[in-house]
Design brief:
Elements lengths: L1 E3 L2 E5 L16 E5 L4 E5 L9 H11 L12
Antiparallel strand pairs: 1-2, 2-3, 3-4
């Protein structure tokens, strides 16, 4: 965890949600207390031919994560 001012950057930590979600550990979470937002970043480094497929997998993986209770949103 790294915190500076109203921004906190988390990595390798589970995100608390309002319902049970199996994909609750994005690679990076950026929390802004001032803006009351969370930005979730999930990283993948696929081969060139798999970029579109990997992007679709990542979007589907986190479609259930709609709220981040840690951020107060």
């Amino acid at each position: 965890m790294c915190e500076e001012g109203d921004v906190t950057v988390l990595w390798n930590e589970a995100v608390h949600t309002d319902r049970e979600v199996t994909a609750n550990r994005p690679d990076i979470v950026i929390k802004s207390k001032k803006e009351k937002t969370c930005t979730q970043i999930d990283v993948a480094i696929p081969a060139d031919r798999n970029v579109v497929q990997k992007e679709a997998e990542k979007k589907l993986k986190y479609v259930c994560v709609q709220s981040c209770n840690e951020c107060g949103t």
